[in-house]
UniProtKB/TrEMBL annotation:
It is found in: Cell projection, Cilium, Flagellum; Cytoplasm, Cytoskeleton, Microtubule organizing center, Centrosome, Centriole; Cytoplasm, Cytoskeleton, Spindle pole. This is Outer dense fiber protein 2. GO terms for cellular component: centriole; centrosome; microtubule; motile cilium; spindle pole. The gene is Odf2. Belongs to the ODF2 family. It comes from the Eukaryota. GO terms for biological process: cell differentiation; regulation of cilium assembly; spermatogenesis. It comes from Sylvietta virens. Residues 4-141 form a coiled coil. Keywords: Cell projection, Cilium, Coiled coil, Cytoplasm, Cytoskeleton, Developmental protein, Differentiation, Flagellum, Microtubule, Spermatogenesis.
Amino acid sequence: QEEKKQLTLKVEELERKLESTSAQNIEFLQVIAKREESIHQCQLRLEEKSRECSSLARQLEMAIEDAKRQVEQARERALSRERTAQSKMLDLETQLSRNKTELNQLHRSKEDAERRYESCLQDLRDRLEQSESTNRSMQNYVQFLKSSYDNVF
């Protein structure tokens, strides 16, 4: 009986342990189920974030391509403007050179005209002086003739 009693106590103790262990197992199963649910939710969020990251990566790539295209267009426009400006600058330099040449020619023509004018003016002065001299000589001769005629008559 004593042995039976001890065995009964052991059985009861083992049953309590079994109940305790079963309760712990249930708690562990619940914790595991919660963790699995949490893991499942995290995986869903991870997949959603991965899709979002992929979408953002595609958008970023498109934005980068668009920016590259815009930079290339801006660079082409700038090069075009630079070529146009260089062409205009060459045209202006050519025009300036022509204008300088024309100005130099005009200066030379002016100087030539001034020299010819001065030469003609000097010739006219010389002729005027000669004419005046001749005129004075003639006046003197006329005066002489008048005197002579007065004396004769």
